[in-house]
């Protein structure tokens, strides 16, 4: 636990809590919606973009779901979007929290795999953008389909859906919304420049991000009094304590597994199967998917890393690339039944949407994540090009 890299976890959690416990999520979403409302499915795209930006600041999937979903789901339903689609797009968008930097999950993977955290963060950007584009594309397709269905019902003498109502924002209203996004972009860009410009280590960057977030909510929202900061600090302490306790016990578990030669024996057994390179990868990812039904990403990484990483290294896989692929697979676990965490976060903020509708709403996004994993297998440069360009080839 005496790893300086782990110090960044409570600091990134503090940064996320400062943003999540303020009206920041609602403001971010409202500003993006104002500019995208004319695009077909623009409201759905606005939610995807808002989730991506918020995830890049908070680093937590449940926090992203809660912050953007509390504003986005009622707004989408008011404008005629089906409950399942509205819930699905927020649940899927929330998973970007563990892929886009700074990601707490990636911090743990970097520690477990003994890989460069900066390179891993950079490797997540390309696949993160790919998923944002795929989710936005599906939002356009689904919104157009629901629009045509609503129009057919109206033409047949049925009720006029809110889908068919035209909304208009003047240029002045759009420009007025920009200051709501600007502070968050400054926060995001400032942290990235500090980290990748070589100005600060990941732990120092986390401290800088937390400080900037606290200054931001104090200036923009007037949240600076002790009674206003109490929920933020309490939430940070609770989540940090929980995560660090899990990490500590998982590291103890890994140490015992290694000391008793269980990890080495399991790794040797897998290597002894003489599986082809890609069959080995497929088996491991299938195991991660199954674990994802029941366990959070933190537990999956810390429990499986000692067993799965040695065979993968022996097979010649780039562990940075695998970290990104594994993160996307764990994202599926967050929204895949029976125990997808984000599904229940959505159910909590929209209790009137049946669980069945939420589950069916997220399944297309699970399919899109499968497609993203296949693309990464065939085109690994999606993940590795940016870190190689900025930090040099390994």
SSE blueprint:
Blueprint: H1 8-20, H2 24-36, H3 42-58, H4 61-78, H5 83-94, H6 104-113, H7 117-155, H8 171-196, H9 202-221, H10 226-259, H11 262-272, H12 277-292, H13 297-314, H14 319-335, H15 341-349, H16 355-378, H17 381-391
Helix pairs in contact: 1-9, 1-10, 2-3, 2-4, 2-8, 3-4, 3-5, 3-7, 4-5, 4-15, 5-7, 5-15, 5-16, 6-13, 6-14, 7-14, 7-16, 7-17, 8-9, 10-13, 11-13, 12-13, 12-14, 13-14, 14-16, 15-16
What does this structure look like?
Helices cover 78% and strands 0% of the residues. It has 394 residues and is mainly alpha-helical. The chain has one domain. The radius of gyration is 21 Å and the shape is globular. 47% of the residues are buried. The mean pLDDT is 82.
What are the main properties of this structure?
394 residues; mainly alpha; 17 helices
Estimate percent helicity: over 70%
Number of helices: 17
* Class by SSE composition: mainly alpha
Tally the structural domains.
1
What is the strand content?
A: under 5%
Total number of beta strands? 0
Which shape, going by the Cα principal axes? globular
Rg, Cα atoms, Å: 21 Å
Low-confidence stretches: none
Alpha-carbon distance between the two ends: 27 Å
The SSE order reads HHHHHHHHHHHHHHHHH
Mean pLDDT: 82
* Sheet having the most strands: none
Q: How would you summarize what this structure contains?
A:
With 394 residues, this protein is mainly alpha-helical.
């Amino acid at each position: 636990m005496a790893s300086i890299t782990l110090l960044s976890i409570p600091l990134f959690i503090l940064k996320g809590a400062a943003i999540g416990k303020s009206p920041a999520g609602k403001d971010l979403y409202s500003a993006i919606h104002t500019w995208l409302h004319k695009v077909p499915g623009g409201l759905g795209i606005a939610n995807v973009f808002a989730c991506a930006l918020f995830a890049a600041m908070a680093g937590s999937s449940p926090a992203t779901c809660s912050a953007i979903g509390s504003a986005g789901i009622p707004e989408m339903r008011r404008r005629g979007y089906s409950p399942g689609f509205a819930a699905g797009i927020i649940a899927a968008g929330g998973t970007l929290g563990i892929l886009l930097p700074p990601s707490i999950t990636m911090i743990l993977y970097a520690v477990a795999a003994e890989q460069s955290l900066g390179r891993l963060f950079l490797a997540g950007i390309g696949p993160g953008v790919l998923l944002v584009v795929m989710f936005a594309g599906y939002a356009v397709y689904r919104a157009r389909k629901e629009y045509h269905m609503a129009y057919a019902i109206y033409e047949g003498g049925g009720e006029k859906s809110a889908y068919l109502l035209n909304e208009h924002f003047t240029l002045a209203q759009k420009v007025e919304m920009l200051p709501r996004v600007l502070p968050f972009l400054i926060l995001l860009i400032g942290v990235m420049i500090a980290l990748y410009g070589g100005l600060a280590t990941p732990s120092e960057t986390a401290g800088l991000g937390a400080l900037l977030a606290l200054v931001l909510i104090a200036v923009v929202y007037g949240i600076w009094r002790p009674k206003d900061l109490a929920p933020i600090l309490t939430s940070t302490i609770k989540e940090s304590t929980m995560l660090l306790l899990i990490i500590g016990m998982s590291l103890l578990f890994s140490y015992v597994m290694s000391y008793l030669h269980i990890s080495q024996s399991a790794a040797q057994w897998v290597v002894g199967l003489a599986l082809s390179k890609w069959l080995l990868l497929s088996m491991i990812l299938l195991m991660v998917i199954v674990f994802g039904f029941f366990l959070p990403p933190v537990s999956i990484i810390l429990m499986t890393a000692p067993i799965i990483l040695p065979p993968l290294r022996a097979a010649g896989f780039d562990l940075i690339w695998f970290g990104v692929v594994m993160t996307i697979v764990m994202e599926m676990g967050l929204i895949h039944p029976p125990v997808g965490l984000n599904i229940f976060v959505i159910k909590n903020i929209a209790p009137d949407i049946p669980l069945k509708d939420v589950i069916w709403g997220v399944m297309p996004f699970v399919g899109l994540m499968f497609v993203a994993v296949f693309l990464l297998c065939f085109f690994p440069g999606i993940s590795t090009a940016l870190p190689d360009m900025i930090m040099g080839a390994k």
